Amino acid sequence: MKIAAWNVNSLKVRLPQLLEWLEVQRPDVVCLQETKLEDHNFPQQEIAAAGYQAVFSGQKTYNGVALLAREMPVDIVFGNPHFPDPQKRLIAATVRGIRVVCAYIPNGQAVGSDKYAYKLGWLGALTPWLGEQLAANPQMVLAGDFNIAPEDRDVHNPTSWAGQILCSAPEREAFQDWLGLGLKDSFRLFEQPEKSFSWWDYRMLGFQKNQGLRIDHILLSKPLAARCTAAGIDREMRKRERPSDHAPVTVDIAD
DNA sequence: ATGGTAGCCGCGCTA
Fold it and tell me: For this structure, is A202 an active site residue?
């Protein structure tokens, strides 16, 4: 079973790439972020024709998440009940007995800003809810754009990013809290190349110079981590014409 | 020196 997460930065623009990628990679579950579409504009027909059920929660211009699966997701929840939020950033659903949480964690803009305070509130509210989800569903995945680089090795230039947004101590502590719940960073279950990133700024030739950060993650509960056979980042999608600024991240789970 | 690119449907905001 293959599970993936991809911040598409506009599903309208990236739909042709997504459909092609689904056909080639054949993932069983896909968590999408930054769809930037209201629900009535969601390309349900095209996704269905590709062989996927979709649940989605979107808004105009900003945010928006979707969960695609070959089998019908059940027990669907939109948003964190502990954190009422007009921004569409969270979907949870059960697919083939696995609780899948698709998250677009706030960016936070800059440490100390209003958006940073919102991010920290969002992170703080996620932890207890994840604990509840995990207690009810031992097989759980948290996948998406976390907007957190968990360690310095996840940052192209840790010195210039030290303490900055995506790297600040409170953000990293929230990530550690989720590991403390028993979740595993799937990417680090395996040996990986140095300077592996999932996001590169569109500006300043960020990708060409590999000036990126690893901020897109798939965390696995212990029973799933034990069955995980591979984890990776599909950099090829970032080399395309008109790419998303994020590459898809994937895991393989043995049946 | 606070730049730059992309996406939104807007004429700035967010990332």
Answer: no
Q: pLDDT tens for residues A105-131? A: 999 999 999 999 999 999 999 999 999
Return the nearest residue to B10, CA–C1'. A61
CA distances from A216 to A44, A147, A162 (A): 25, 7, 19
CA distance A161 to A54: 37
Helices vs. strands in chain A: H and E counts, helices first: 6, 14
Q: Which two tokens stand for residue A114?
A: 């209003």
Q: Choosing from A28, A52, A104, A245, which is the catalytic residue?
A: A104
> What per-residue confidence (pLDDT) applies to A202?
96
Q: Is the model's pTM score more than 0.85?
A: yes
Closest nt by CA–C1' to A114: B14
Long-range contacts of A225-230 (CB under 8 A, 24+ apart): A225/A184, A225/A186, A225/A189, A227/A253, A227/A254, A228/A184, A228/A186, A228/A189, A228/A252, A228/A253, A228/A254, A229/A253, A229/A254, A230/A190
Bridge-based pairing of strands A216-220 and A74-78 is: unpaired
Q: Nearest nucleotide, C1' to the C-alpha of A147?
A: B15
Clarify whether A116 is annotated catalytic.
no
